[in-house]
Task: inverse folding
C-alpha cells in the first residue's frame, strides 16, 4: 500500500467499520475489545505465494449464489468507510485503501444485506457461509484469487472487532462484511464478518 493508503486504512480501523444497510447511513462506534483473537486458518489452508497488486473486478461465492461485479470504495466525509450505493442492481464494493485480494494483508469487501425498497442485497445470505467454503475474486489482470473461509462471525456494531478485521497479518486474507442480526428503525444492530485466507490462484 502507498503511505496515503496506509494512513486511510489505519483511520478506518480506528473508526471501526460499520456497514450501513437498507439505505441507512453508517455510524461510528467504540474500538474493538482488547484481547480478541483472530480466527484460525481454514482446514484446507496451505502456504501460497501472495499475488501482485491488481484491483478486484468480480466476486463469486458459489455456496450462497453470489456473482457480483466489484466497485471501489473510499472514505466518507465522517471518516467511516463508504458503502455501495443503494440501487436496484446492488454490487459488492472493495475498500480501496486495503490491500487488493491476494496481496499480503486483510483485503476488505463490503455489501448490503438489504437495499431499501429494492429488497435483498448482494450479501443477503452471507451469514450462511461455513468454514471451508470457497470465495473467488477475479482481478483486473485476469487472475482469479481463491480464498477459503476460516470463520463467520456475527458481532454487535458497538463491539466491532476492528483489530481482527484490519490488523496486520502475514499472509493474504479477505474480509467480507455486511449487516445482520435484529433490525431496528435505524437499520441492523449487528455486523456479519467473514474471514478467509488465500488458498490458490489461477490465471
Result:
Amino acid at each position: 500500500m502507498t503511505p496515503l493508503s496506509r494512513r486511510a486504512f489505519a483511520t478506518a480501523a480506528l473508526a471501526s467499520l460499520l456497514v450501513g444497510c437498507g439505505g441507512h447511513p453508517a455510524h461510528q462506534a467504540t474500538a474493538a475489545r482488547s484481547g480478541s483473537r483472530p480466527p484460525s486458518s481454514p482446514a484446507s489452508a496451505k502456504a501460497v505465494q501472495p499475488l501482485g497488486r491488481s484491483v478486484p473486478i468480480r466476486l463469486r461465492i458459489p455456496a450462497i449464489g453470489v456473482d457480483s461485479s466489484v466497485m471501489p470504495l473510499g472514505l466518507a466525509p465522517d471518516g467511516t468507510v463508504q458503502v455501495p450505493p443503494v440501487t436496484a442492481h446492488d454490487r459488492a464494493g472493495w475498500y480501496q485503501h486495503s490491500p487488493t485480494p491476494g496481496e499480503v494483508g486483510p483485503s476488505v469487501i463490503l455489501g448490503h444485506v438489504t437495499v431499501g425498497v429494492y429488497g435483498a442485497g448482494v450479501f443477503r445470505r452471507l451469514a450462511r457461509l461455513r468454514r471451508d467454503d470457497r470465495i473467488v475474486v477475479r482481478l483486473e489482470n485476469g487472475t482469479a484469487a481463491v480464498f477459503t473461509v476460516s470463520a463467520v462471525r456475527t458481532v454487535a456494531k458497538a463491539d466491532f472487532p476492528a483489530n481482527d478485521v484490519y490488523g496486520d497479518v502475514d499472509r493474504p486474507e479477505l474480509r467480507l462484511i455486511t449487516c445482520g442480526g435484529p433490525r431496528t428503525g435505524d437499520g441492523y444492530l449487528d455486523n456479519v464478518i467473514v474471514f478467509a485466507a488465500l488458498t490458490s490462484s489461477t490465471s
Observations:
- Residues 66 and 134 are 11 Å apart (CA to CA).
- Residues 13-19, 22-37 have pLDDT under 50 and may be disordered.
- The two ends are 23 Å apart (CA to CA).
- Helices lie at 3-15, 162-166.
